[in-house]
Amino acid sequence: MMEILSVQHLSKIYGEGKNQVHALKNVTFSLDQGEFAAVIGESGSGKSTLLNCIGALDEPTSGNIYMDKKDLFTMKEEQRTIFRRRNIGFVFQSFQLVQELTVEQNIMFPILLDYRKPDQSSVEEILEVLGLKDRRHHLPNQLSGGQQQRVAIGRALITRPKLILADEPTGNLDSKNSQEVIDLLFKASRHYQQTILMITHNSNLTTSVDRVLRVSDGILTDLGGKENEKLS
Amino acid sequence: MKSYLELVPISAKVHRRQNRMSVFCIVLAVFLVTVIFGMADMFIRSQIMQARMEDGSWHIALRYINDHEAKLISARPEVTSSSWYGILNYRGDKGYTLSNKNVAILGSEESWITEMQIDAIDEGQYPQKDDEALLTKNAKAALGLKIGDQISINTPDGKSLSFTISGFLNDFSKTMKEDSYAVCLTTHEYRSIYPGVTNGEPADYNSIFYVQFSSRCNIQNAINDIKSQFGLTDEQISGNTKLLGLLGQSRNSFMIQIYSSAFVLFMLVLLAGILMITSSLNSNISQRIEFFGIMRCIGATPKQVMTFVRKEALGWCKFAIPYGIAAGIVLIWTLCDVLRYLSPKYFIGMPYFGVSLPSIMAGICVGILTVLLAARSPAKRAAKVSPLAAVTGNSNALPTVRKAANTTLFKVDSSLGFQHAISSKKNFILMVASFSLSIILFLSFSVTIDFMHHSLTPLKPWTPDLSIISPEKTCSISGSLLEQLQKDPAVKRAYGRMFAYNLPATVNGEVKKVDLISYEENQFKWAKDYLLEGSVEEAQSGNNTGLTVFKQQNASNTGDIITLHTENHSADITIVGTLSSSPFNNGPDVGTIICSENTFRELTGQVDYTIIDLKLTKNATENDVDRIHKYVGKEFIFSDGRLDNSSVKGSYYSFGLFIYGFMTLISFITIFNIINSIAMSVSARMKQYGTFRAIGLSNRQLIKMILAETLAYAITGSICGGTIGLFLNKLLYEKLVSFHWGEQWNVPFPEIGIIITIVILSVILAVRGPARRIRDMSIVDTISAQ
Q1: Which UniProt keywords are listed (chain B) (predicted)?
Q2: C-beta of residue B53 within 8 angstroms of C-beta of residue B118
Q3: How far is residue B315's CA from residue B318's CA, in Å, rounded to a whole number?
Q4: How far is CA B469 from the centre of its chain?
Q5: For a FRET experiment, which of A26, B160, B532, B548 has its CA 20 to 30 Å from that of B84?
Q6: Nearest to B465 by CA among B338, B612, B582
Q7: Close Cβ partners of B711 (under 8 Å, ≥ 6 residues apart)
Q8: How many domains, in total, are found in chain A?
Q9: Is residue B459 predicted with pLDDT exceeding 70?
């Protein structure tokens, strides 16, 4: 399988002197195309910092991140933004939809930012898969939490990014909606061959993933296959 | 902790950065109000000072009353001072002379000189006996006199009146300009020498009774009372309109127009202060809506949240108001210093560290009242936060969107920017109002510049300090005197003019009268600013060429050939240009032709000058003027215009300083208001921008988004502000200018251009700051920005 993400000796230190916090310590791992991985860990263990660094939202103190063999942090800011827009999809815990855009516009948003005309058939397909066809003209504030997260997933899928980063995507959802979201992400990894890295607290949700990574005190441990199987 | 309100200072410490902006807004609003009111106060004080110095410190003048009535009026409790004032030979046409110069004889009581005139006596005292007189200072130098010396005034019937000099009066601009003297006698002596009247009524002695009231009384009520008590008509009473107006005691219709205009401008300034503080508080509260939600969760009632917000806002006032007032006072001191420096003669009396109580009161009131008023709506908003929203993290500070952005017309970044602007009607109205108000303020205040240009005539470059004039207005001042004057170190510039009055001339077959005037290099240079058509150079260097001055009934135009008939011969002069106006007045049916000295000499055969104008150097002293006066001699009129010029300069400087000061302040209000509004709007959306950036919005696109939002406010604000501003501009123009000078209002295109440029510059500055701030922040920080 083709390697999509490669994280090499990644460290992130916050603060200075006595107040220094080592959020990530020498993290190294890689993900292949179509792989669905979950990152688990306690609050404050460094999961979100890892995700932010991989998504080029935050700069690491040392180490390298290669996306599709390209070093994210040797790029200029503008270049990196465009690269992120085209190659990385984000799904946040609190959805972070654009309140001023309809469901359809929200899904098309990354394409519109690229000043490209969205391929209507792709939009239709995503709306179909997400079950949001009849809600396409609704505004985010007219949707339930589950529906909003589905729109966020649609937005992450529209550019067919190589990597989707999901930060607690089910954190604000009930169990039924949570399972639906996981199923959608699973479908994306299988159907579109997209690599997914998801942060979660809920161990039950790791049943569908290919690999589980645990972060504890900034140190990443690869637990290999499904965590539930390991734990059992 | 005894009360939940003790959380206020703790919260203030935690949110210091966010609160800084609100505190700064209050400081600025208080500063602006303090400065504007302080400037207005100082302006009025300076004008009162100047009015008292120029026109005297009296309030009303009464005509055709008798001595008994005058006594009764002066005995009234509200009257602080009164005096009879009569003048003889005012126009110099009655034949009273002192050493061959015209002398004006005035008769008054001591109070006129000591209480109703400012700084009238230069040396000595008011006449204590009837045979004593005060004499103007110019006679002291010219005639070598001192206190105690005798002077003799020649009367038209050949008699001589002798007086002992009791002191010297400071010069009057009229006597200086006309090269004449003035003496002041007691009322009794004045009446006794008045020709042709014995035991007459005061009016027979050309006397007027002047009254000064206590500044604390209602002068208009006192006037009405006097009128009804003595049965006086409106024609018998005239007021010192300027002084009464400045004291706020005038019922003159023009002054009432000025008061109402001042009220409109006052309300606008107040509104600007309120808007600035409101938008800052609104933004501050919006950013902390979650915090208030949590307070509600813990058990605070909506009322308690409101009290909390109000106490917090008042806490800011504790720092902001003194700072704003202090900064305002310092600026006013500086302005007063500038005024003293520009025109020490008039404004030396301005206090060095003057405190303007009205401005401080206005600053405090605007600060506290607007903060309380402005805190009402955010406090209500904070109190309304649902506890559930706070705990679920759904307490979005941003308004609920009801309509989706239209991404088909513009690119998505610009569309979202527009949508951000219009998504909340209330916010949009507030922002547009804030943009509009700056434009309205600018357009409204700009009328005061027109008012200034109409009410004051600036000193023109050709206005001379001294003029040497031929008494018979003939060409009798020799060119050698001009050459001598040009070499004098105290003289910056000296130039002459030759006049030939009422020359018969044939213009297009008609016989008319023209005044022929010669110009030299300097005067031709100044004339260029008034050239309507043709060429000044041709008139200056050509032979038998000249310029005409435009008049409605003017028969001559550029290109005409006019035949002038002088005593000896007739000669043609070609008109090579037309000037819009000239500094000379003549009859409506008399034309003016300006030509070079050579042409004048060729046409008239005259070689000497009628007038020599002198502009003195900055360092020229009184001694220099006396020296020049001496070598010019007594055969010519030596007109000293310096006093008049300094009065014009003084008025112009004080008016200009304050008016342009106001305009500068308003420009700053505009710039700050726009920058601040956008900064706060961006701060409120910081988290959202972070998400956009995470999704892939580039910095350039972010700038476009903020720019689109700002432009939505700026364009709508400019349209609304421009419309209302123009309406107010017209209204104020009609009140301040058309009412008095009859000039028609025109659309003030330059002012509109200036304010639109200021708005555009402010928009650029407003977008630059936040865009740079966001760019320098990491995306994670932007998302989690509070």
Answers
A1: Cell membrane, Membrane, Transmembrane, Transmembrane helix
A2: yes
A3: 5
A4: 34
A5: B160
A6: B612
A7: B417, B763
A8: 1
A9: no
Helix axes B7-14, B302-342, angle to 10 degrees: 60
Do the beta carbons of residue B516 and residue B505 sit within 8 Å? no
* CA dist., res. B495 & res. B461, Å (int): 13
- pLDDT, one tens digit per residue, over A195-209 is 999 988 777 777 878
The model's confidence at residue B412, banded by pLDDT at 50, 70 and 90, is: confident
Residue A18 within a domain: no
pLDDT per position as a tens digit, B358-372:
788 888 887 888 777
Q: How many CB atoms lie within 10 A of CB A102?
A: 21
Alpha-carbon dihedral B585, B588, B590, B593, rounded to 10 degrees: 50
pTM: 0.66
B637 three-class SS: strand
Instruction: Tell me which H or E stretch contains A90.
Output: strand A88-91
Q: Which residues of A39-57 are buried (b: 16+ CB within 10 A; e: fewer)?
A: bbbeeebbbbbbbbbbbbb
Structure confidence at residue B641 as a pLDDT band (50, 70, 90): confident
Cα atoms found within 13 Å of the Cα of residue B775, Cβ hemisphere only:
16
Q: Give the number of C-alpha atoms closer than 13 A to the C-alpha of residue B705, restricted to the C-beta side.
A: 25
Q: Helix, strand, coil: what percent of chain B each, to 5? A: 55, 15, 25
B665-674: average pLDDT: 79
Interface test with A, best of B695, B697, B705, B775 (most A CBs within 10 A): B695
- Find the closest chain B residue to A102 by CA distance: B404
According to the model, what pLDDT value does residue B215 have?
Answer: 78
Has residue A56 been placed in a domain? no
Sort strands A211-216 and A219-224 into parallel, antiparallel or unpaired.
antiparallel
**Cα–Cα dist B162/B147, whole Å:** 14
Q: In this model, does residue B186 exceed pLDDT 90?
A: yes
Instruction: Give tens-digit pLDDT for B210-259.
Output: 999 987 888 888 888 998 988 888 888 888 887 887 777 776 666 667 66
Question: Is B696–A82 a contact, with Cβ atoms under 8 angstroms apart?
Answer: yes
CA-based nearest residue to B550, from B538, B562, B526, B533: B533
Cβ–Cβ under 8 Å, residues B642 and B334: no
Residue B299 distance to chain A (closest CA, Å): 25
Q: Which residues of B touch A73 (CB under 8 A)?
A: none
Question: How far is it, in rounded angstroms, from Cα A5 to Cα A32?
Answer: 7
For chain A, what percent of residues have pLDDT higher than 70? 96
Distance to chain A for B312, nearest Cα, Å: 31
Whether residue B527 contacts residue B594, with contact meaning beta carbons closer than 8 Å, is answered with yes
Geometric angle at alpha carbon A155, from A152 and A159, rounded to 5°? 155
**A68 lies in some domain:** no
The parent domain of residue A213 ranges over 32-47+76-231
Chain B residues touching A85 at Cβ < 8 A: 695-696, 698
Query: What is the per-residue pLDDT for A231?
Result: 39
Q: Strand pairing partners for B207? A: B86
**Any domain includes A205:** yes
- Tell me the C-alpha distance between A27 and A9, whole Å: 5
CB contact under 8 A, A78 and B700: yes
Q: How large is the average pLDDT for residues B567-586?
A: 81
Task: Kindly identify which residue of chain A lies nearest to residue B695, measuring between CA atoms.
Answer: A85
Lowest-confidence segment of A159-168, B78-87, B398-407 by average pLDDT: B398-407
Most confident region among B46-50, B380-384, B769-773 by mean pLDDT: B769-773
Question: Would you state the pLDDT for residue A62?
Answer: 92
Given pLDDT bands bounded at 50, 70 and 90, which one contains residue B662? confident
Which residue, chain included where needed, has tokens 């999901």?
A166
pLDDT confidence band for B786 (50 / 70 / 90): very low
- By CA distance, what is A105's nearest residue in B? B407
Burial of B747 (C-beta count, 10 Å sphere; 0-12/13-18/19+)? exposed
